[in-house]
Design goal:
The protein has 367 residues and is α/β, with parallel strands linked by helices. It is built from ten helices and 18 strands. Strands 1, 2, 8, 9, 10, 11, 17 and 18 form an eight-stranded mixed β-sheet that branches. Strands 5-6-4-13-14-15-12-16 form an eight-stranded mixed β-sheet. It has a two-stranded antiparallel ribbon with strand order 3-7. Helix 1 links the parallel strand 1 and strand 2. The longest helix has 17 residues. The chain binds flavin-adenine dinucleotide. Flavin-adenine dinucleotide binds next to helix 1, helix 2, strand 12, strand 16 and helix 10.
């Protein structure tokens, strides 16, 4: 055997799995033909956020956030862990009803949130346009710089990094594009949007997103600001949508998002959609119109029909596992995912039920 475990893919999910298994006493090899943390992980915003689209999504995001909070003191400076919290912005009374619902949902499950009326919203974020109805502050949410977290996790795992592409995985064996094979007790497919090519039978669809980063404007906003309409954008399955989502970085820069598109493989920035996204952001934060842009880019979220990732044994195999399909929450949920994968492999009980993420579950088709 070349290793106890082979993790295929060095995004944040693969790196977290490598770290978890190494801490469980296993010798881990990681396969990554490109840049470590250079896939969806480098394209993401790095918002660590508790979400409540479903009980299973809440359980995994909440559980993962607790692991992030425990890990924070050990993270290196360049991981930029910043506990600035989320502020969900309500534009009107309908969205204020959603603020109250969310507040109750979180309160019933032990997550502290703070509803804000129009005046307190203005005080919390003076750059927001006047006339908004209020919001919900979630102080436990945070922001990280994902590529640096990947490097930290792989180093902590003392993983052997092999620059190769996997073309097939089977019980105990990974076949490589170079023609050779590697063997190990367990294999974990953590290749994000590419996962179905190695594990037929699971469905993951790339969902394109645009982001933009500005020059440095420290203090322009204090929280990660997200419109409540974001939930409709993220969890609906329309072909194309944009939502106001602005994140202050530790550098003083702002990341502005976000868009969601199905059915597009071309990674180029689309000026028309980027324009729509920016107009939406400027509606909420008019001052953005005066800021300098440094860079725009796109990435592909690994999306599944039921908005839940695949975590667990691959259908039809004994020693092959899948950890993929985290859509727009893979930075948040990588650490919880790794814990569940470690629990499956090392036969440990898990703190949350694992069934909802079982890759063999029957997934309703929402598209
Ligand atoms: C615009 C945008 C904004 C986002 N914002 C957030 C956010 O704020 N918060 C959040 O929690 N999430 C966010 N996400 C989602 C998050 O980025 C992803 O869910 C997460 O990065 C997925 O990680 P991964 O490790 O599964 O995939 P990836 O990072 O894509 O890693 C997979 C790796 O596998 C490698 N690979 C592929 N095929 C093979 C093969 N055959 N052999 C070997 N290696 C292979 C690839 O090269 C890649 O490095 C965002 C995503 C996008 C696109």
């Amino acid at each position: 055997l070349t290793a106890d475990a082979i993790v295929v893919g060095a995004g944040i999910v693969g790196a977290a799995c490598a770290d978890e298994l190494a801490r469980g006493g296993m010798k881990v090899t990681v396969l990554e033909p490109f840049v470590v943390g250079g896939g969806a992980t480098a394209a993401g915003m790095g918002h660590v956020v508790v979400m409540d689209d479903s009980e299973a999504q809440f359980a995994l995001t909440r559980f993962s956030q607790e692991i992030w909070q425990a890990l924070a003191p050990q993270l290196p400076r360049d991981a930029e862990y910043t506990p600035n919290g989320t502020l969900w912005v309500a534009a009107d009374e309908e969205e204020m009803a959603e603020v109250r619902r969310k507040h109750q949902f979180y309160a019933a499950r032990g997550v502290v949130t703070e509803p804000l009326d129009a005046v307190s919203l203005c005080q919390a974020e003076p750059k927001l346009r006047p006339g908004l109805a209020g919001g919900l502050r979630v102080p436990g949410d945070s922001v990280v710089y994902p590529p640096a977290v990947v490097r930290f996790l792989l180093a902590r795992a003392k993983a052997r990094l092999v620059s190769e592409t996997a073309v097939q995985v089977a019980d105990g064996r990974v076949d490589l594009a170079s023609g050779s094979s590697l063997t190990a007790g367990v294999i974990i497919n953590a290749t994000g949007t590419a996962a179905p090519s190695l594990t037929p039978g699971i469905e993951i669809i790339p969902r394109k997103g645009h982001l933009l980063i500005t020059d440095r404007y420290p203090g322009f906003v204090r929280h990660q600001l997200v419109e409540l309409g974001y939930l409709k954008s993220a969890h609906g399955h329309s072909q194309e949508s944009v939502a106001f989502n602005v994140q202050p970085r530790a550098t003083g820069q702002l990341i502005i998002g976000s868009s969601r598109q199905y059915g597009v493989q071309d990674p180029r920035v689309e000026p028309a959609l980027l324009g729509r996204m920016l107009r939406r952001a400027i509606e909420y934060l008019p001052g953005l119109a005066d800021l300098q842009t440094v860079r725009t880019w796109t990435g592909f979220r690994p999306s599944t029909p039921d908005n839940l990732p695949h975590i667990g044994r691959a259908p039809g195999f004994q020693q092959v596992y899948v950890a993929a399909g985290h859509e727009g929450l893979g930075i948040t949920t990588a650490l919880g995912t790794a814990r569940l994968i470690g629990d499956c492999i090392l036969n440990r009980p898990s703190p949350i039920p694992r069934d909802p993420y079982d890759p063999s579950r029957v997934v309703p088709h929402a598209h």
